[in-house]
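Handout, page 2. Input:
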Amino acid sequence: MADDLIPADVRARLKGLVLVSRRAIGGHGLGLHSSRSRGAGLEFAQYRAYERGDELRQVDWKLYARSDKFFVREAERESPLALWIVVDGSASMAQRLGATKALAACLAELAIAGGDRFALIGLSEAGLALVPPGTGARQRDRLLLALHTLSPAGGFPAESTLAPLWERIGQRDLVVVISDWFDPAVTASASKLAAAGREVLGIQLLTTEERDFPFDGGHRFRDPETGEELIADAPAMRADYLARFGAARAALRAELENAGVTHVEHVLDRPLDAPLRALFR
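Output:
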């Protein structure tokens, strides 16, 4: 299923990226978290049953000869981090749904490549989707299944309903929020997580229409979350819209920077992996 979401050229470019965080070296650059995990390290830790996606070099062939079953050797090693992928599932994300799912799948692939735990949180008024932290190919399948059922609806959940969910995120975990960041509640949640000591990265998805406002003639504009409508002459309001939208983007960048949240914009006509390269290159 991951192959359906991630184009081949993007998957090839992912190989040059590594999940990293500023925390390990005091915020002055990029470094690795230090935590224990199972992987293909040097010091043997345990056997586990072979899973689809495991590398054949990790199979213990001597044990296979004795048991006629495939087992993988795992070892203790230093793991960079635990990744939480937070997806905005509100109605305004409908136009961005394909990119949202693909970016979440890409992040899962980066976590798998590094032997890291990863989790998914999908948020909307319709309900909360949670895939608890896990590792490996089966965890990827659980995440992709949750993404497949994601259907944007309503607005962003109230903060009071999210507090128990945020408490599941560890002090040294990495959080990546994928959203259009139009709802102030998204910024408030990310800021609270950052204030509580979590490393928070934000990917803002924008459509080309939002960036360029290429409309001609009279148009009916409708807010997908509130249902409010505006009927206007598009050329007459273009300059004002672009000025206001630019000011709003600048204000959001400043607010997130002050909160300690690293933020990148991604317009949907750009390469899918561009925001990931900006964050993890």
